[in-house]
Amino acid sequence: MRFSDERKYFVSEASVYRLLKAHNLITSPAYVVIKAANEFKDKTTAINQLWQTDFTYRR
């Protein structure tokens, strides 16, 4: 924070995370990776029919 405030540089969150991790200052978050399927299991059956899905994973 001091670097970006004093020197007026923007540092992305991803860059900060990568540097902290490289110096073993943080660990990887414990989360489950959920991959999306390539296509819907239940296909549409009529013209202009649309399937919509959503999921939320909370621990």
Question: How would you summarize what this structure contains?
Answer:
The chain has about 60 residues and is an all-alpha fold. The protein is built from two helices and no strands.
Task: Give a structural overview.
With 59 residues, the protein is mostly helical. The protein has a domain at 1-27. It contains 2 helices and no strands. The chain has helices at residues 2-7, 13-22. The protein is elongated. It starts with a helix and ends in a 37-residue tail after the last helix. The model has no long low-confidence stretch (mean pLDDT 78).
Outline the fold blueprint.
Blueprint: H1 2-7, H2 13-22
User: Order of helices and strands, N to C?
Assistant: HH
- How many strands? 0
Discrete helix count: 2
What general outline do the C-alpha atoms trace? elongated
Report the portion of residues in β strands.
under 5%
Average pLDDT, to the nearest integer?
78
Keywords:
59 residues, mainly alpha, 2 helices, 0% strand, elongated
